[in-house]
Amino acid sequence: MPVVREFTLPDLGEGLTGAEVVRWMVEVGEVIAVDQPVVEVETAKAVVEVPCPYGGVVTALFGEPGEEVAVGAPLVTVAVAPGEGERPVVAEVERPLVGYGVAEPSRGGRRRRVGGSAGSAPAPTPAPTAAAPAAVVPAVVSVAPAVAAVPAVVPVISPLVRRSAREHGIDLAALAGSGPDGLIMRSDVERAIAARTAPPAPPAAVADGEVVPLRGLRRAVAEKLSRSHHEIPAATCWVDADATELMALRRQLNATPGPKVSVLALLARICTVALARFPELNSSVTEDGSGIRRHPAVHLGFAAQGERGLVVPVVRDAQALSTEQLGAELGRLTEGARTGALTPAELTGGTFTLNNYGVFGVDGSTPILNHPEAAMLGVGRIVAKPWVHQGGLAVREVTQLSFTFDHRVCDGGTAGGFLRFVADCVEQPGMLLRQL
């Protein structure tokens, strides 16, 4: 007889305690393979597909789309044939960022307990003896008694019937099949659809308009910005800069063989050079506010528009990359943001942010700092403007630079010095050669 395996939401890393169900990729009654993705969830930092380490028949799904599921709470149960449909897990293996969360190391850790069907009690996994060597152990123990733990699998004649039921919100488990041995036929689903004559009740009217709940990434962004606004005494200074020579340098670089260099890559290189000159700005205030933590490496965040809204991917150790390498990494992360494929690790850990809001066609901004970072450089659009150049009026490519900083970390002199140095590098990019 098959036994039921319960798969719980794994630890997704980065201190996350739960995730929101975006969509189910399987349904009750479907046969799945080992390590097949079963659900797409949204954390405060990314959207990820969660694979199930069991193969067999899906017997239950826990959580509706939009519902929050805690780490360790049940996701699915699968009816597995004895000795089949399980992926063994090697003890003492480090847990991946997005792993299965069904086994713990054999020494020094606790083991998960799993539950069966409604009313059955969870059974603990027996701990190995101290003398037992590290070995391959089953991910989850079976629920005893096995027969009582196996819920009935919904018999359906074809995938088309399941699809029709799913599209119309019909619970197959609640239907009585008219076919042989209770097999659910297409006519059974059609009758259930026809029986739903009453239209759904309209949403309650709200005097001030529709209320859209803050969930997932949007909620995390709101909480982080609110915290930054309340905790950080931020100030902003700005300056106009003639970017004509910087744009000419870009055209010169891109006229030679090799990867194309973006304006963002050049600005990122200027940021790393400026932070080497003003290292106190690559820092953050400690959680208790008693000190300032100086960061030895520049983990450069930059604003990127994605399917889930504006996100801030992070280029690790940006100071150690060449301009071409910076461009390649910026391009990779931008594409990942556009498709929603970035991992939580790629969206956290920044020490300084470059905000190129000029891509939205605006000149200036006074942004909120990306907590707990202490500074952010903003770059407006680069546009042709009349400009006094070498004693005469000329049309030049001009941009506005803004610099927002935590006043606890530095005073206006340091902030002004940083911004002026950045502006000088934009206007005279040859200055960068002195720093490389």
From TrEMBL:
InterPro entries cross-referenced by the UniProt entry: 2-oxoA_DH_lipoyl-BS (IPR003016), 2-oxoacid_DH_actylTfrase (IPR001078), 2-oxoacid_DH_E2_comp (IPR050743), Biotin_lipoyl (IPR000089), CAT-like_dom_sf (IPR023213), E3-bd_dom_sf (IPR036625), PSBD (IPR004167), Single_hybrid_motif (IPR011053)
Enzyme Commission (EC) number: 2.3.1.-
GO MF terms, alphabetically ordered: acyltransferase activity
Region: Disordered, residue numbers: 102-129
Keywords: Acyltransferase, Lipoyl, Transferase
UniProt keyword Transferase present: yes
Domain Lipoyl-binding intervals: 4-79
Name of the protein: Dihydrolipoamide acetyltransferase component of pyruvate dehydrogenase complex
Naturally occurring in which organism (per UniProt): Kitasatospora aburaviensis
Source taxonomy: Bacteria, Bacillati, Actinomycetota, Actinomycetes, Kitasatosporales
